[in-house]
Amino acid sequence: MIIKIQEYFQFIPNWYRNREVQALVLQYYFVLRSVLRAKPCLRPCLTRCRHCRIFFLTHPRNAGRKDLGCPFGCKAEHSKRCSTHRSVEYYRTEEGKGKKRIQNSKRGNGAAKAGMANRQEDAAPNQRSIGKGIVSYLQIVVGMIEGRRMRRSEILEMAARVLRQHSMERRRRIDYVLQYLNERAP
Questions:
Q1: Which of 21, 48, 101, 103 is at 20 to 30 A from 140, Cα to Cα?
Q2: Domain boundaries, the chain
Q3: Could you give the 3-state DSSP secondary structure of residue 48?
């Protein structure tokens, strides 16, 4: 579900309230609330993204912080924008202009292009479709819920199983959840 939500990510406030992703986010919140009911010790780890304001669980050492970005994309996008800003500032200096000249002069030969091709071949297909940030987030959250350290390979195996699974349902999952809640109202 988290992986599906990430596919709809946009770096704008309230991106998760768009019609296409709203049902998935309702389901995500339903699961989040049920996890917090089952594990009340995780309540301090619940936080909001500083940019889009969606709720998510964070590592216990970050509990209480208000400056965190969500794992759906705000964290990565903010980091990318800060990196671009630093690069622009650096390449405006005299030292940076010299380095940029050297880098641009290397573009003509094929060595740089071959290096890029090798790096793309080395990436695992699962990591390309899921995203590094989501894998790290799932590693932390599943580890907190299960009460043990999760290996990255375990998370990738679980995600591969979930992504490979084909659903037999004809309705959206949130419709099943809402029907279940309506039939068994508290």
A1: 21
A2: 2-73+127-178
A3: strand
